[in-house]
Design a protein that fits this description.
The complex is a heterodimer of chains A (505) and B (411).
Chain A lengths: L1 H11 L4 E2 L2 H6 L14 E3 L4 H14 L3 E4 L17 E4 L6 E5 L4 E5 L4 H8 L4 E2 L13 H7 L7 H4 L6 E7 L5 E3 L21 H5 L8 E8 L1 E2 L3 E8 L4 H15 L3 E7 L1 H9 L15 E8 L2 H16 L4 E2 L9 H7 L17 E11 L3 H14 L1 H11 L4 E10 L3 E11 L2 E2 L2 E2 L1 H19 L4 E2 L3 H10 L5 H14 L17
Parallel strand pairs in A: 2-4, 3-4
Antiparallel strand pairs in A: 1-2, 5-6, 6-10, 7-11, 8-9, 8-10, 12-14, 12-15, 13-14, 13-17, 16-18, 16-21, 17-18, 19-20
Helix pairs in contact in A: 1-3, 8-10, 13-14
Chain B lengths: L4 H5 L1 H6 L5 H4 L1 E2 L4 E2 L3 H5 L10 H12 L7 H7 L7 H5 L18 H14 L6 H11 L30 E4 L3 H5 L1 H13 L15 H6 L3 H16 L4 E4 L2 H15 L6 E4 H10 L13 E6 L5 H4 L3 H8 L4 E4 L17 H4 L1 H17 L4 E4 L2 H13 L2 H6 L1 E4 H6 L3
The chains are: A alpha+beta (505), B alpha/beta (411).
């Protein structure tokens, strides 16, 4: 390993590489309570050229390389699978390279966060539209592209992080550097269109979970931020999920470009209120589901007209308008005006000390989500015995269910589901039974949700392999993905192990 | 595993870290959040995650699980932290009282870092060299201050002010930094108090409050000091003890009662609380000022702001000084950027401390301020050291002045 280290050190210089045991452990986890993989080496490369050289050495030495943006994958995607390999910390690459104000395209290094980019854009009255994943305050643009992420605001209007993608610079697993879309034409001076000049190669890397290449430069369409916005929150009637789904469908049928539309299920409101998480809803007697929307417009008249349509849709549902202020219960105002959209993922995370989520975040058609939510409730009942094993130690039962259900581009929603549970290390003892039960429950829940035909975006180590393990992929799709992987990455260097693409060891 | 006695008390906080990374990267302009960790940012492109909270929490999880040990190498990483507490402010924090994001209820990062430091000291991997010197000086009967100066030097300035009594209801705790490094500010304080006819008392028997030892994690060194200090001021008839040092204020007001498990027998105030009373009663006779208002910005010391939720009074004080227009920097109050001096960084890693202060001075200039003021001698010291090393153009743009000197200059 020391030979490899010295070769890599020559590429980046000694300030940007570490094999210190504490640095390696700092990079050994993501956002879950189970998965860990300790890298041998952590490197902070400066640019695509350095990454290219690193990958060439990794191929020569047959050592796995794991790209890492902000490290917020909920399925262990940006740490090694097993204790080995090189973590590429891409957060050093966080510069804005160009803002083409005339053509409304920004080009950035892939390690920049959605928060930093939008802070810059707002000086020009612009924004990225889709504001990134729910963790966009910190999450990297590259990670959002690698996962088709959603949830950080604006997804109902602008879609996932990948919808506005214009061009990518990618370092392929064997070290070649390519640019996609309009940049495939060597005479093109700047990126302006993702499609054309042949296949949509940018699309190959969108949602690839880091297996086909390391994204180093991203060009995105940006948009003038409309000057007017309205945001309203409603208490849903009985059958709140079905009502919310109906409202979302009606919004799509009317063709109104809501910026965000979200539903928070009854269980979150009830449990969260009991634990004092929602002072804004303390005054509500019947703790049922909450629906809220945000709509933007370029003029007051346009806004009033859109709101009128939305009010008509919602007024048919016996939903109760909660008032204009956050203190009245209007969470939509916090979500939009105070950028709460970057703080609003699974609401019950951390409700008790050491309680965190094992996620099952996925896309599904609008009209499917109430059924899936009901089935997750049913799954919870069926797994009470296992939940009880954890309760016996922690005296708090894990809670299944969904965080916000968010309308995304098209007639789809994102379900932020899963269950909140505890670390195996609890009350200063390691409880193997908690870890084993967590693993069993997580697999069981994911399988249940997969069988609803859902679509996964962030897959990381765990879900990418689990889909393969349970035979959920169609054979043709999986084989095509594998053959592309083999062609691009014959030694299976990059993100080795994801989707069960293992290299020879 | 007995090595981890203090860290184990913080297991709930450590295991509650969800790993979102906002403590390293968060930018949320709507609530004034522009990044979080001064140490990580000062490391610039070398900012590996071990430099900020999430990376450190991941390491602590591994330590608690028995995967890796405490060590001297770990101490070198861990002490590169000013314990500013900014990571706590961004940790699953809605920044709105009507919405509670629950993880913020369980993690007090500074408490975790101090627990780790205690365990490192108890295991013999800390204090680091320079910190060891400070502790030695504090335990030396001839010195009893972290600067290694002769004990009596701290009290020489009092001779200039015969009106300072030896006992009384309102007693001043001088601390170490001002009397040994910024004595002119004490003269300014007396100028104000004299002009306002405010009587104070002080004792030359006071001992260093022990803030530095606590922040380094050496609780043992100060356990005797606490009781001696409290008894001393009680005997002197104190009903109110006030200090002009943010570090002493935090130690007296928060640490002493926590460590003793009981309330102090007198009230503890910061100098700005005394000043605001005088200002509200029109007891400070300012000169008439005719020139245009000067733009002044206030730097929130971590030991006052985030550690004690003490934001408004210094601003009220500044707003009442004639000829001054108080403006805010981009990062202010609970989002304020640390000066970089705290947590033992100034003594052990002086270049790092100065680099962090440079950023803060530049931020004040960007805000359009001609004066950067604050109410902590430790911040003043570090900001001034950074200022001295910066270009002349900076020195032409701005001055660094203690809030006490600012008032005194208007008398």
């Amino acid at each position: 390993m020391s030979d490899i280290y010295h070769k890599l050190e020559k590429i980046v210089s000694d300030n940007y590489i570490s094999k210190d045991i504490y640095v390696r452990h700092a990079y050994s986890r993501n956002v879950d309570v189970i998965l860990q993989g300790i890298p041998d080496i952590v490197i902070r490369p400066r640019d695509a050229q350095e990454i290219s050289e690193i990958l060439k050495i990794a191929n020569e030495e047959n050592i796995a390389v794991i790209p890492r943006g902000a490290g917020i994958c909920e399925f262990g995607g940006s740490k090694p699978i097993g204790n080995n390999g090189i973590v590429l910390d891409l957060k050093r690459m966080n510069n804005i390279l160009n803002l083409d104000e005339e053509n409304l395209i920004v080009t950035v290094e892939a390690g920049i966060s959605w928060g930093k980019l939008n802070e810059y854009l707002c000086q020009f009255g612009l924004y990225t539209g889709c504001m990134g994943p729910g963790s966009g305050m910190s999450a990297s643009i590259g990670g959002g592209i690698s996962h088709h992420s959603v949830g950080g605001g604006g997804c109902a209007k602008y879609g996932a992080c990948t919808n506005q993608l214009v061009s990518l610079e990618v370092v392929l697993p064997t070290g070649e550097i390519i640019e996609t879309g309009s940049q495939a034409n060597k005479y093109s001076k700047f990126p302006f269109n993702r499609f054309g000049n042949g296949p949509d190669f940018a699309g190959l890397f969108c949602g690839d979970n880091g297996i086909f290449g390391v994204k180093t430069k991203v060009s995105l369409q940006v948009f003038p931020k409309p000057k007017f916005a309205e945001y309203k929150t409603y208490l849903m009637p009985r059958k709140s999920a079905e009502t919310a789904a109906q409202i979302m469908t009606d919004i799509r049928r009317c063709g109104i470009d809501v910026y965000d539309a979200m539903f928070i299920p009854d269980v979150v409101i009830a449990v969260g209120s009991q634990q004092g998480l929602f002072p804004l809803w303390d005054h509500i007697k019947k703790k049922r589901g909450i629906f809220f929307y945000t709509i933007e417009a370029n003029s007051e008249i346009e806004l009033l007209e859109k709101v009128k349509y939305l009010d008509e849709i919602i007024s048919n549902t016996k939903s109760e308008y909660l008032g204009s202020e956050i203190s009245d219960g209007n969470i939509a105002k916090w979500h939009y005006k105070e950028q709460g959209h970057w703080q609003f993922y699974h609401n019950l995370w951390g409700m008790f000390p050491s309680m965190q989520a094992l996620s099952a975040e996925c896309f599904c058609p609008i009209n499917s989500f109430p059924k899936i939510l009901r089935d997750i409730d049913q799954w919870d009942v069926e797994h009470n015995e296992d939940m009880q094993k954890i309760f016996n130690i922690t005296k708090i039962r894990p809670i299944s269910g969904s965080g916000p259900v968010a309308l995304i581009d098209g007639n789809n929603v994102e379900i932020t589901s899963g269950f909140v549970t505890f670390w195996g290390y609890y009350d200063n003892e390691f409880h193997k039974i908690i870890e084993e039960t967590n693993l069993k429950l997580w697999k069981s829940l994911l399988e249940r949700v997969i069988k609803h035909g859902t679509q996964w975006y962030m897959m990381g180590e765990f879900l990418s392999r689990f889909m393969v393990d349970i035979g959920a992929y169609s054979e043709e799709f999986y084989n095509l993905m594998k053959s592309i992987k083999k062609n691009l990455d014959p030694n299976m260097i990059l993100s080795r192990g994801k989707f069960n693409f293992w290299g020879e060891k | 595993m007995s090595q981890l006695k203090n860290l184990k008390k913080e297991w709930k906080a450590i295991m509650s870290c969800m790993g979102c990374g906002d403590c390293g990267y968060a930018i949320r302009p709507a609530v004034g959040r522009y990044l979080t960790c001064p140490v990580k940012e000062a490391m610039e492109e070398e900012g590996f995650e071990i430099y900020f909270s999430r990376g450190r929490m991941n390491v602590l999880k591994s330590i608690l699980e028995g995967q890796i040990p405490l060590s001297k190498e770990l101490a070198e990483w861990v002490y590169q932290c000013s314990e500013c507490g900014n990571c706590t402010e961004v940790c699953h924090m809605s920044q709105n009282p009507y919405i509670v994001l629950p993880t913020c209820n369980w993690i007090d990062h500074v408490k975790v870092w101090e627990a780790l430091r205690k365990d490192l000291i108890e295991a013999g991997f800390a204090p680091l060299d320079r910190h060891n010197d400070l502790i030695k000086y504090m335990n030396d009967d001839k010195k009893k201050n972290p600067y290694g100066e002769e004990r009596n030097k701290k009290f020489e300035w009092i001779k200039e002010f015969p009106e300072i009594k030896d006992k009384g209801e309102l007693m001043f705790f001088g601390g170490c930094t001002m009397p040994l490094r910024q004595v002119d500010t004490l003269r300014s304080m007396m100028k104000i108090l004299r002009a306002a006819n405010k009587e104070i008392a002080m004792t030359n028997e006071e001992l260093c409050c022990g803030s530095i030892a606590l922040r380094i994690g050496d609780e043992k060194s100060i356990s005797a000091v606490i009781k001696q200090n409290i008894e001393l001021f009680k005997e002197k008839g104190a009903k109110t003890l006030f200090t002009a040092c943010a570090g002493c204020y935090r130690t007296w007001k928060k640490d002493y009662p926590e460590l003793l498990g009981e309330e102090l027998p007198f009230e503890v105030k910061h100098i700005t609380e005394i000043l605001i009373e005088l200002l509200n009663n029109n007891q400070i006779p300012f000169k008439e000022i005719e020139q245009e208002d000067v733009k002044v910005t206030y730097h929130d010391p971590c030991h006052l702001g985030r550690h004690m939720n003490f934001y408004d009074i210094p601003r009220e004080v500044i707003s009442k000084i004639p000829g001054i227009n108080l403006i805010e920097m981009k990062r202010t109050r609970n989002n304020a950027w640390c000066c970089g001096a705290g947590g033992g960084v100034k003594s052990q890693f002086p270049d790092l401390a100065i680099k962090i202060s440079e950023e803060r001075i530049n931020e004040a200039i960007e805000a359009g301020a001609l004066i950067l003021t604050t109410s902590c001698p430790f911040c003043i010291g570090n900001l001034s050291d950074a200022y001295e090393k910066m270009d002349d153009s900076i020195k032409e743009s701005i001055k660094v002045v203690d809030i006490i000197d600012l008032i005194a200059s208007k008398l």
